Amino acid sequence: MNLKQLRYFLTVAQERQLTSAAKLLYIAQPPLSYQMKQLEKELGTKLFIRESHGITLTESGKIFQRYAQQVVNLTNETTEELGKEQNGMRGIIRMGLISSAGNIVPNQEMLNFTKFYPDIKFQIYEDNTINLIDKLQNGLVDLAVVRTPFNMQDLAKVNIVTDKMAAVYNPNYYSFESNELKLPDLMKQPLILYRRFETIFNNSFAQQGIYPYYAVKCDDARTSILWADRGMGIALVPYSIAKEYTQQQIKILDYSRWQTKIQLVWRKNYQIKPITQRFIDTFTNHLA
């Protein structure tokens, strides 16, 4: 028994005549009649009662018609679904996401994308940038939203947003007159350092002859902000994180080298799923 025989049977059952069924199937009547006899032989039961005015289904034929229709319908649905996935119309996108992108992703481009492709599903894996890059390189995620700096080797990217650095502090303990701070304003201030940016900060301070005082060092921008909220010092963190996680004072740092980018990254020279490519194209075309 094969799918072609099931389709033949359903057409005969619908038309109740071999002649008209053969015309619909674009085959001659004898081969169609042979296929039906082979089907009855394989099933070990009569499916049709052949009469002078046409064909009627036996009780076995009616039962088989119901199951044959289910099989053909399921096959058609499966073929359609696989076609959609192959053409990038549906599927699952495994996305790595840094916590500090919470107010940036999802964005309007993603909302438009899901409206245009309603059968798309996302699996989100949250972690820090370094771990997400590792997951990406090991094929555990299809793409990732991460924050610079990181090792770009073997990765392709598209920028989502450029983020300035900001100083977060409790005004009950510290104060600055200007709305935007420069590096000399931080001299002799107790700084709370997010270690990811230590090299960048140290190089910048050194170029201006500033010796920074790091009162606290930690590994998460949210921890930096929490300690700043409690008056333990001035946290130096990306502005998008600052405005998301604190109600305290935020001052933009007016220094071009102290910028970080949130980027969408994926592996170079690696065959990615069609739907993932469509998602990447959405960002690429928007920013082109």
From TrEMBL:
<keyword id="KW-0805">Transcription regulation</keyword>
<dbReference type="GO" id="GO:0003677">
    <property type="term" value="F:DNA binding"/>
</dbReference>
<keyword id="KW-0804">Transcription</keyword>
<dbReference type="InterPro" id="IPR050950">
    <property type="entry name" value="HTH-type_LysR_regulators"/>
</dbReference>
<dbReference type="InterPro" id="IPR000847">
    <property type="entry name" value="LysR_HTH_N"/>
</dbReference>
<feature type="domain" description="HTH lysR-type">
    <location>
        <begin position="1"/>
        <end position="58"/>
    </location>
</feature>
<dbReference type="Pfam" id="PF03466">
    <property type="entry name" value="LysR_substrate"/>
</dbReference>
<protein>
    <submittedName>
        <fullName>LysR family transcriptional regulator</fullName>
    </submittedName>
</protein>
<dbReference type="InterPro" id="IPR036388">
    <property type="entry name" value="WH-like_DNA-bd_sf"/>
</dbReference>
<keyword id="KW-0238">DNA-binding</keyword>
<dbReference type="GO" id="GO:0003700">
    <property type="term" value="F:DNA-binding transcription factor activity"/>
</dbReference>
<dbReference type="GO" id="GO:0005829">
    <property type="term" value="C:cytosol"/>
</dbReference>
<dbReference type="Pfam" id="PF00126">
    <property type="entry name" value="HTH_1"/>
</dbReference>
<dbReference type="InterPro" id="IPR005119">
    <property type="entry name" value="LysR_subst-bd"/>
</dbReference>
<dbReference type="InterPro" id="IPR036390">
    <property type="entry name" value="WH_DNA-bd_sf"/>
</dbReference>
<comment type="similarity">
    <text>Belongs to the LysR transcriptional regulatory family.</text>
</comment>
